[in-house]
Amino acid sequence: MGDRLRLAVGVIGNAASLLLYAAPILTFSRVIRKKSTEEFSCAPYIIALLNCLLYTWYGLPVVSHGWENFPVVSINGLGILLEFSFVVIYFWFASARGKMKVAVTVTPVILVSCTTLIVSSFAFHDHRHRKLFVGSVGLVASVAMYGSPLVVVKQVILTKSVEFMPFYLSFFSFLASSLWMAYGLLGHDLFLAAPNLVGCPLGILQLILYCKYRKRGIMEEPNKWDLENNDEKSKHLQLATNEST
Question: What is the pLDDT of residues 217-241, one digit of tens each?
Fold first, then answer.
């Protein structure tokens, strides 16, 4: 019964994580349309890529016992594909300075992933120690992934605008972290449950900030359009006056 419940939670967690990983598609469609990364940060996607790489390796039979963590492998494998695509799109449309930042941030990710894979494969010869090592590195990466939106949270508080903190991203982050925390607790797996104990409160914080500043963001848009309309009317009036003269 416990294994079935854990599997069911894992499947639902997969669905929630898929929505979380796919949520930035709307953001990057805007980047492609405007051909600019604007004020968006690439850090959350790079850290998420590291997290997916580490936990895909963690869930494979090389580290875990058999396919006990197959839901972890399936969703993080898909996450690698999505997050890598987002990083490539960001790099393509970023400024020269932005591209440099992406390159500097991605390099440690590649080094950490390769080092973890090599050390766990050749330095340890049993599942227990491999899980302990890979899980510890993955734990740090997961906490960093859930903490990376704090950069956006700071921007929201300073600007009092939620333009660059989409609701669906915050909501799916909270939902996915809650489900994976339950999955880890049911399987008595500290390395899956612990990072989500950080993710849940941060997800709640983002939702609270969104509810607080959402109306202000909506009210600012009409004012902007009104100003533009007034400018247009002024131009037409000036033209009419000149023609009459």
Answer: 444 444 443 444 545 545 554 544 5
